[in-house]
Amino acid sequence: MTTALHVTPVEGLPEIQSGDDLAGMLATAALDQGLADGDCLVVTSKVVSKAEGRLVPVADEGDKAHVVEAEAVRVLRRRGDLVITETAHGHVCANAGVDLSNAPDGCAVLLPEDPDRSARRIRDVLLGRGRRVAVVISDTFGRPWREGVVDVALGVAGLRAVVDLRGAPDAMGRELQVTEIAIADEVACAAELVMGKARSVPAAIVSGLDPAWLGDGSGRDLIRPPAEHLFR
Amino acid sequence: MTTALHVTPVEGLPEIQSGDDLAGMLATAALDQGLADGDCLVVTSKVVSKAEGRLVPVADEGDKAHVVEAEAVRVLRRRGDLVITETAHGHVCANAGVDLSNAPDGCAVLLPEDPDRSARRIRDVLLGRGRRVAVVISDTFGRPWREGVVDVALGVAGLRAVVDLRGAPDAMGRELQVTEIAIADEVACAAELVMGKARSVPAAIVSGLDPAWLGDGSGRDLIRPPAEHLFR
Lengths: 232, 232
Known about the structure:
With about 230 residues, chain A is an alpha+beta fold. Chain A has helices at about 20-30, 45-50, 60-70, 115-130, 185-195, and strands spanning about 5-10, 40-45, 55, 70-80, 80-85, 90-95, 105-110, 135-140, 150-155, 165, 180, 205. In chain A, the strands form four sheets. Chain A has a five-stranded mixed β-sheet, sandwiched between helices. A three-stranded antiparallel β-sheet of chain A has the order 4-5-6. The model of chain A has no long low-confidence stretch (mean pLDDT about 90).
């Protein structure tokens, strides 16, 4: 692939409420912004969760802690307020993905119940409007040995989440070692750079992706099975 | 920031040899491709290491294992051929970053000795050619709980590696919780999407970054201090 990649924020969406037709609103805004066949629409899980009504009332930090415990299927570590958890989806992240920032007053936002399904629903609406695109539902995760957070893909539709270059010859003509690239996570990172946390931009269009990356993929493809965890 | 991000591969570079004037070659190629003030040039550590002569002869896998042991300051886990290590820089990664893919025959490539210095050298050459840009030296790391690899920033010059949004109000006017974004890692991911492992494209231009992100930064800012590791 030698073409450039372009990442465009999807602007002009109102604050999303529970029950809103998010897919329809995203489709209208993204088509306005030039969404084309082969592009990937990245949508933050926060706005997906709000539209899907994944909100629980929390009065205080104690309430939030209870919600985190309820959402986690396993706690890997605790330090102070920080709880490293495994979610029902299989993601390992802080606080089971429960978040108070950008949440309606008195509420915490949970992760979407089935992020792949959320991605497929948005993709289907876009297909209905004549655009064959990929959709990624993104969230923001920390890393155990690196400072700062980066975005990852929770849900994927129409995109291969991991592209396996094992066995493809390297530039010296020898076989490459392990090179399974987490394309969907990198696409989520690229999108995050134009969305920003405090700017109410809940989606971005990534265009210029290698057409070979389009196809069936799932956010589950990015989850390492617990039996292969070296750090538990 | 409401502008789009653009990521352009830097093509036309020859296979880099030990002792090559990589900074000069990159500057010429990137200026040809329209590198402008405020852009970030992302360069793979592989090509930096080759130019800097960070190569060691290895006859077989046993030799490689010895090189990995020598490069690691600590081994966190072993499983089969996989060794999770801490490098002298402080990065936690597989095999101390020692890599055989895209290496000259009979050699392994080590990480650059001081990736920030490597980034500053390239940046200084570009400043000398009249372009005030950021430079990121990138590498490809795995993640403990996620499948596939993604790119990260090892060396940084002219860019804030981590941007702290803590305390900035969210869209609801409340204070954001922890949101320190690892901008330099996300920029490395965006660049990787146009470089590809088997295509001999060792650099990419990322343009459209928030000007507030330009400034002093270091790859060390992305390394979580061992005392704060919850997983050792």
